[in-house]
Automatic annotation (TrEMBL):
Subcellular location per the Swiss-Prot or TrEMBL entry: Cytoplasm, Nucleoid
The protein, known as: H-NS histone family protein
UniProt-listed SUPFAM superfamilies: H-NS histone-like proteins (SSF81273)
Subcellular location, principal: cytoplasm
Residue numbers spanned by region Disordered: 59-90
Highest classification ranks of the organism: Bacteria, Pseudomonadati, Pseudomonadota, Gammaproteobacteria, Lysobacterales
Organism the protein comes from: Dyella tabacisoli
SMART domains listed in its UniProt record: HNS (SM00528)
Length: 106
């Protein structure tokens, strides 16, 4: 099926490109499906599951956990800092006043 693209106008050419891209995506999806089936069959033939081989999908990162405070503001004991992230102003001010990090440890 040879298409003479020299005789196509702008609209026809865009339509051809669009159809070709859709067909290309269909072929890709078919290939991926066939490959997926082959992988499933191979894994099953070896006596494993996909989870055994590839794990349980995307690795999830634990978040939302709180870290216990490591430093306390001597001027206001309610102010604490875990030592992670940006230093609080009270911590920087204490260091400028001559305190050492170990002096602020809880």
């Amino acid at each position: 099926m040879a298409v003479d693209i020299k005789n196509l106008n702008h609209k026809q050419l865009n339509e051809l490109i669009s159809k070709a891209q859709l067909r290309q995506e269909d072929i890709r999806k078919e290939s991926v499906g066939k490959l997926r089936e082959k992988i499933h069959a191979l894994v099953k033939a070896e006596g494993f599951t996909l989870e055994d081989i590839f794990g349980r999908g995307k690795a999830t990162r634990k978040s939302g956990g709180t870290v216990p405070p490591k430093y306390r503001n001597p001027a206001d004991p309610a102010q604490t800092w875990s030592g992670r992230g940006k230093r609080p102003h009270w911590f920087n001010n204490a260091l400028k006043a001559g305190k050492k990090e170990k002096d602020l440890l809880i």
